[in-house]
């Protein structure tokens, strides 16, 4: 009986010890979960995070949720089961992602959010997001200047489920609506998509042939709009985008699209990994949960310094 | 039995009435503001009421450097100057904000725009040293970002945070009055806030007060 009990205790001790070593071994992995890498913006995020994690001595699990909250939830189950040390997340929906992040927290795994906010605080350790509103104001100020403060214009809006679509649109109008001689004649979503933006722009042009400018919620839609305008021989129409992609950079340098706003995606992802590292080592980042990063206006003056969502000095 | 039920109903009615009275007695300014986006404007108005005249304006006036002092501070490097005299906006990459006051001579002005500006010579060499925003469109969030008591973590999200910036600018925009006629050569006295991301960046002032005194 005594022996049996002792054996049992020993077995338990081994079990506990085994579990601890198991955790310690996998403590070297950081999970990086983003939307699809088809959009170079998200690829830049994942690359930036992975590079920083590697530099700090971590293994990485790089996964994509394709903006599907259910898939994101499954990915969280996977990385929780794998016992990762931290999760870097660009989430699949402000409301829908709260439960996934909470699930990780309950399992003792801290999450560090980038790019998009979630609607709860105290669940993630950090939420580092681009100041989309400030960026939109910058883009709109440049747009207003390019338009000479007057004329008719159209707006392409992003995917409605993405909070940044609404934030950018509000930021644009916060500035543009202070100019009474600028008139919005068409406003439509193209769901962040280049091909969709192309056809939306064609339709808009038919209904409003006198249009003088187009302000777009992101760069891929700006590229689509610009292509449609070119096809219609309307190279004079002013197009302004948002994100700071290499495609739009090249268009700006070639005299096509006039301006965009850089979100420092690469740097942001790196910052999130540094904070995760700090948290893993000390139990605290020493910073507020919600952190903003300022966006930067890109036009012909500085487009040459832009490469993969980072601006060199 | 019926009597008991009746008494019970009476009690419920009485309680209900008491409840009504309590609600009526809640003072106007303590009414709950919706926690979601629909409460943004009410919260922004409340913040303006609570802080604009009583905290923000005195804060800027009390910390305002002269142009010479700002230039001397910046010569030590932006971060050193900022730690000593400024406040940084929320988030990485945000500008340092400095309060500045002084009188300069208007050397050029752009008034045929919604975002009017005047360029001032502050040191008598005839060249423009600072640009003062004159509205009605005021750019940026310098008035919000110089104040350590407006902290992004206290806001619902970046939209609500931005709404405060805009509301502060609107307070100023409505108060700026310029004399008729040519401004060139006139002295302008101002107090305001300068946001800087680089020490050698153009100095653009978001004013809290502007006066042209011929």
List keywords for this structure.
heterodimer, A: 313 residues, alpha/beta, Rossmann fold, 2 domains, six-stranded parallel β-sheet, four-stranded parallel β-sheet, 10 helices, 47% helix, elongated, B: 214 residues, alpha+beta, OB fold (Dihydrolipoamide Acetyltransferase, E2P), five-stranded mixed beta barrel, 6 helices, 39% helix, globular
Textual characterization of the structure:
- The complex is a heterodimer of chains A (313) and B (214).
- Chain A has helices at residues 2-26, 40-55, 69-81, 97-106, 132-146, 163-176, 194-207, 219-231, 246-253, 265-282; strands at 29-34, 59-64, 86-89, 111-114, 126-130, 151-157, 182-189, 213-216, 238-240, 260-262, 290-293, 296-298, 306-307, 310-311.
- Chain A is an alpha/beta fold and 313 residues long.
- Chain A folds into two domains: 2-130 and 265-293, Response regulator (Rossmann fold); 132-262, Rossmann fold, CATH 3.40.50.2300.
- Chain A has a six-stranded parallel β-sheet with strand order 2-1-3-4-5-11, sandwiched between helices. Chain A has a four-stranded parallel β-sheet with strand order 7-6-8-9, sandwiched between helices. In chain A, strands 10-12 form a two-stranded antiparallel sheet.
- In chain A, strand 1 (29-34), helix 2 and strand 2 form a beta-alpha-beta unit.
- In chain A, helix 2 (40-55) runs parallel beside helix 10 (265-282).
- The termini of chain A are far apart.
- Mean pLDDT of chain A is 90; it is low at 6-26.
- By secondary structure, chain B is of the alpha+beta class.
- Chain B is built from six helices and six strands.
- In chain B, strands 2-3-4-6-5 form a five-stranded mixed β-barrel.
- Mean pLDDT of chain B is 87; it is low at 9-24.
- The chains are: A alpha/beta (313), B alpha+beta (214).
- The interface between A and B is medium-sized, with 28 and 22 residues.
List the helices and strands and how they pair.
The complex is a heterodimer of chains A (313) and B (214).
Chain A: H1 2-26, E1 29-34, H2 40-55, E2 59-64, H3 69-81, E3 86-89, H4 97-106, E4 111-114, E5 126-130, H5 132-146, E6 151-157, H6 163-176, E7 182-189, H7 194-207, E8 213-216, H8 219-231, E9 238-240, H9 246-253, E10 260-262, H10 265-282, E11 290-293, E12 296-298, E13 306-307, E14 310-311
Parallel strand pairs in A: 1-2, 1-3, 3-4, 4-5, 5-11, 6-7, 6-8, 8-9
Antiparallel strand pairs in A: 10-12, 13-14
Chain B: H1 2-25, H2 40-63, H3 67-74, H4 78-85, E1 87-88, E2 96-110, E3 115-121, E4 130-136, H5 142-145, H6 158-173, E5 187-196, E6 203-212
Parallel strand pairs in B: 4-6
Antiparallel strand pairs in B: 1-2, 2-3, 2-5, 3-4, 5-6
Helix pairs in contact in B: 2-6
């Amino acid at each position: 009986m005594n022996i049996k009990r002792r054996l049992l205790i020993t077995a338990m001790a081994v079990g506990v010890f085994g579990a601890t070593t198991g955790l310690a071994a996998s403590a070297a992995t950081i999970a990086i979960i983003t939307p699809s890498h088809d959009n170079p913006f998200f690829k830049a995020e994942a690359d930036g995070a992975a590079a920083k994690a590697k530099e700090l001595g971590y293994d990485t699990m790089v996964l994509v949720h394709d903006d599907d909250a259910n898939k994101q939830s499954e990915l969280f189950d996977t990385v929780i089961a794998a016992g990762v040390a931290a999760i870097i997340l660009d989430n699949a929906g402000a409301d829908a992602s709260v439960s996934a992040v909470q699930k990780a927290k309950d399992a003792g795994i801290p999450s560090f959010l980038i790019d998009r906010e979630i609607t709860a605080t105290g669940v993630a350790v950090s939420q580092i997001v681009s100041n989309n509103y400030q960026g939109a104001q910058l883009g709109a100020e440049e747009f207003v200047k390019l338009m000479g403060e007057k004329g008719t214009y159209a707006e392409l809006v992003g995917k409605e489920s993405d909070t940044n679509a609404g934030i950018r649109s509000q930021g644009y109008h916060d500035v543009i609506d202070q100019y009474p001689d600028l008139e919005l004649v068409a406003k439509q979503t193209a769901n962040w998509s280049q091909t969709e933006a192309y056809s939306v722009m064609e339709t808009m042009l038919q209904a409003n042939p006198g249009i003088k400018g187009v302000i777009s919620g992101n760069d891929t839609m700006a590229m689509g709009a610009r292509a449609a305008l070119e096809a219609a021989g309307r190279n004079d129409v002013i197009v302004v985008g948002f994100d700071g992609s290499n495609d739009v950079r090249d268009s700006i340098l070639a005299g096509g699209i006039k301006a965009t706003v850089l979100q420092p995606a690469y740097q942001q992802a790196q910052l999130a990994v540094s904070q995760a590292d700090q948290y893993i080592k000390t139990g605290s980042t020493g910073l507020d949960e919600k952190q903003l990063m300022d966006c930067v206006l890109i036009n012909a003056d500085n487009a040459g310094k832009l490469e993969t969502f980072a601006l060199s000095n | 039995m019926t009597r008991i039920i009746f008494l019970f109903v009476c009690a419920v009615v009485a309680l209900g009435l008491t409840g009504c009275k309590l609600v009526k007695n809640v003072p106007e300014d303590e009414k709950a503001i919706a926690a979601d986006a629909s409460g943004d404007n009410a919260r922004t108005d409340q913040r303006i009421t609570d802080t604009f005249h009583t905290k923000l304006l005195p804060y800027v006036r009390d910390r305002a450097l002269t142009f010479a002092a700002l230039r001397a501070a910046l010569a030590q490097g932006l971060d050193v100057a900022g730690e000593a005299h400024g406040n940084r906006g929320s988030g990485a990459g945000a500008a340092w904000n400095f309060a500045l006051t002084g009188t300069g001579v208007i050397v050029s002005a752009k008034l045929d725009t919604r975002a009017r500006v005047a360029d001032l010579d502050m040191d008598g060499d005839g060249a423009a040293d600072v640009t003062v925003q004159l509205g009605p469109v005021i750019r940026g969030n310098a008035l919000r970002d110089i104040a350590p008591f407006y902290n992004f973590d206290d806001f619902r999200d970046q939209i609500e945070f931005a709404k405060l910036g805009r509301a502060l600018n609107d307070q100023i925009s409505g108060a700026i009055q310029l004399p008729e006629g040519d401004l060139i050569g006139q002295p302008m006295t101002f107090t305001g806030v300068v946001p800087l991301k680089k020490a050698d960046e153009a100095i653009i002032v978001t004013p809290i007060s502007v006066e042209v005194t011929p």
